[in-house]
């Protein structure tokens, strides 16, 4: 499979991009190089290879959650530009 100038123009149109003739030629070459590399990868023998989600073993590095007392609401609201009934007051975002 290869990318044609027509394909580049179609994708540019969908993305609402105006490309010069030089850019169209450049992108056509770059996209074809990517596809050629992907075809090269298809030549690899992957029979018997287990699928992996990551090449390195990963471990959860997050700490365990511990229940601790929260700050008092009065102290939290000291930094609020405006508050109302114990809550942050913000401008309305819906009409």
From TrEMBL:
Keywords: ATP-binding, Ligase, Nucleotide-binding, Protein biosynthesis, Transferase. It catalyses: L-aspartyl-tRNA(Asn) + L-glutamine + ATP + H2O = L-asparaginyl-tRNA(Asn) + L-glutamate + ADP + phosphate + 2 H(+); L-glutamyl-tRNA(Gln) + L-glutamine + ATP + H2O = L-glutaminyl-tRNA(Gln) + L-glutamate + ADP + phosphate + H(+). Its EC number is 6.3.5.-. One of its GO terms (biological process) is regulation of translational fidelity. One of its GO terms (molecular function) is glutaminyl-tRNA synthase (glutamine-hydrolyzing) activity. The keyword Nucleotide-binding applies. It is an enzyme of class 6 (ligase). PANTHER family: GLUTAMYL-TRNA(GLN) AMIDOTRANSFERASE SUBUNIT C, MITOCHONDRIAL (PTHR15004). Heterotrimer of A, B and C subunits. Allows the formation of correctly charged Asn-tRNA(Asn) or Gln-tRNA(Gln) through the transamidation of misacylated Asp-tRNA(Asn) or Glu-tRNA(Gln) in organisms which lack either or both of asparaginyl-tRNA or glutaminyl-tRNA synthetases. The reaction takes place in the presence of glutamine and ATP through an activated phospho-Asp-tRNA(Asn) or phospho-Glu-tRNA(Gln). Belongs to the GatC family. This is Aspartyl/glutamyl-tRNA(Asn/Gln) amidotransferase subunit C. It comes from Cohnella abietis.
